[in-house]
Write a structure and sequence with these properties.
heterodimer; A: 152 residues; mainly beta; 1 helix; 10 strands; 46% strand; B: 195 residues; four-stranded antiparallel sheet; 41% strand
């Protein structure tokens, strides 16, 4: 039978043993200083002077453009085309390193109109596009396709 | 007669008692003084500087605009122990974006101890020295680890130069174009022996 006094002594003993067993609290010294750098990324400019040439009977037109004059210089261009029409319309994009691209004959489906845009590339970077070329494929005389092209 | 004497005796005794109680006690205190020689206690201090400054300082030449994928930017952090105690230190790196474009996370970092800085501003690079592994914008480690065993010891008065090179990754997404970031490289010195 443990009396009231015994309980108090027991509790005090437990508390004391916990306190003794605790890790000591050290105050260590620490100091720091810093250096900073400031960085800003460039913006890739789009190609300019979009042109369209070579449209006509039995030929697919060539889209041309001029490299941007503002830095940074692109390392390629993405030509995107979106076709609309009842049959045979295609959409897609190609990457070219030069400053012109001729529509392949595989896109020559009668009744299809293509909206074509060009962006500058620099690795994964893409510029906005500037202007749109519109190419229309129609059926010409003697069953030969005829293309027309405009730039806006 | 006996009564008269008794009365007188009581009066004398009473007067004597009053006098005895009224008198202050006679204490004998012994004192001695010896002046100790003056003592001077010097408390050590821990003080680490980066490029001669205790707070944050813009690293010379580490400002660049118009970074493009593959661009580099380098500068030297000179970490000096100007305190009176040896310390061990480590360095961290963190990017803060001024916009939502996340430019900082597209930067890669390399560090060389004692490396040579080539050029200034955009296109500057580090060469030579001892390459320190583990530098990463994503983990935040610049040089050495924060664990006691990984930190670099720096004696009182000693300094160490870290050539830090940032590169905008060629894999950076298009969305970082026009982004702006501040990169903070922090050296932290701790008391030697600290766990």
């Amino acid at each position: 039978m443990i009396g009231k006094r015994g309980w108090i002594l027991a509790v005090a003993g437990v508390v004391l043993s916990v306190l003794v067993g605790m890790a000591p609290a050290y105050a260590w010294w620490k100091d720091s200083a810093a250096g900073t750098a400031s960085v800003t990324a460039a913006t890739l400019a789009p190609p300019t002077k979009l042109t369209c040439s070579g449209a006509g009977l039995g030929s697919m037109p060539t889209i041309g453009w001029t490299a941007p004059t503002a830095a940074p210089a692109p390392n390629g261009y993405t030509v995107s085309y979106a076709g609309s029409g009842i049959v045979g319309a295609q959409s897609g994009s190609v990457t070219v390193t030069g400053t012109s691209w001729q529509l392949p004959s595989s896109l020559a489906a009668v009744g299809v109109t293509y909206k074509i845009t060009v962006q500058s590339n620099l690795y994964n970077w893409r510029s906005p596009s500037l202007g749109t070329a519109t190419v229309t494929v129609a059926l010409g005389a003697l069953g030969v396709n005829v293309t027309s092209c405009s730039v806006a | 007669m006996l009564k008269r004497l008794s009365l007188r005796l009581r009066i004398v005794l009473g007067v004597a008692l009053v006098l005895a109680l009224g008198a202050g006690p006679a204490w004998a205190y012994w004192t001695a003084q010896q002046k100790a020689p003056a003592q001077t206690f010097n408390v050590g201090h821990l003080d680490l500087q980066v490029n001669g400054q205790n707070a944050s300082v813009a690293v010379t030449g580490m400002t660049a605009t118009n970074m493009v994928p593959g661009s580099t930017l380098a500068g030297v952090l000179t970490v000096t122990n100007v305190g009176s105690l040896p310390l061990s230190y480590y360095a961290t790196i963190a990017g803060s974006n001024a916009d939502s474009k996340g430019l900082a996370s597209s930067l890669t970092v390399t560090v060389s101890r004692g490396g040579t800085l080539n050029g200034s501003g955009l296109g500057s690079t580090c060469s030579g020295g001892t390459a320190l592994s583990g530098a990463s914008m994503s983990t935040g480690q610049l040089a050495y680890g924060s664990a006691a065993a990984s930190r670099e010891l720096l004696a009182v008065g000693a300094s160490e130069s870290l050539c830090v090179q940032l590169t905008l990754s060629t894999a950076s997404p298009s969305s970082v174009q026009g982004g702006a970031s501040t990169i903070t490289m922090t050296a932290t010195g701790e008391q030697v022996g600290q766990p």
